[in-house]
């Protein structure tokens, strides 16, 4: 897997951790090893521009995903197709505010948003109640198992399933 990362802000972000989390999420979803992903870390002004342009919503948001080849998850014994998964754009200052409100650290929020973005790129959505439950349970499972694989213990109740109200 090729994961291209760029931090276009002055905020210190552990790009190695975001890379590892994205790779873990893609492995969990049986994504082909020849898939490409781009993750950009941007400031609130740039995120607001994208949010207005693509969602017609004012203000910055935490994460946006832009699928490219419309890949879908694979399954055990049958990996996804090869290609360009797409782009994930994260805003660390919005993530920091959400993390504070949720009672966990900013990096955990950025990891949650990374998993969220990967799932969106693979076709998951949360517009309908059934889709929402499936996506956010999967997101939670991937994030908690990723953190456990890194020797990090997170109280299960501190990782939110759904995005804050008014987001996405």
From TrEMBL:
InterPro entries per UniProt: MetalPrtase_cat_dom_sf_prd (IPR023091), YbeY (IPR002036), YbeY_CS (IPR020549)
Keywords of the record: Cytoplasm, Endonuclease, Hydrolase, Metal-binding, Nuclease, Ribosome biogenesis, rRNA processing, Zinc
Note describing how the cofactor binds: Binds 1 zinc ion.
Amino-acid positions noted as binding Zn(2+) in the UniProt annotation, renumbered to this chain: 116, 120, 126
Main location (coarse class): cytoplasm
Enzyme class label: hydrolase
Keyword Metal-binding appears in the UniProt entry: yes
EC number, as in UniProt: 3.1.-.-
Recorded coiled-coil stretches: none
UniProt cofactor(s): Zn(2+)
Keyword Metal-binding in annotation: yes
Localization terms from the record: Cytoplasm
General function of this protein: Single strand-specific metallo-endoribonuclease involved in late-stage 70S ribosome quality control and in maturation of the 3' terminus of the 16S rRNA.
Family: Belongs to the endoribonuclease YbeY family.
HAMAP family: Endoribonucl_YbeY
Protein name: Endoribonuclease YbeY
Lineage: Bacteria, Bacillati, Actinomycetota, Actinomycetes, Micrococcales
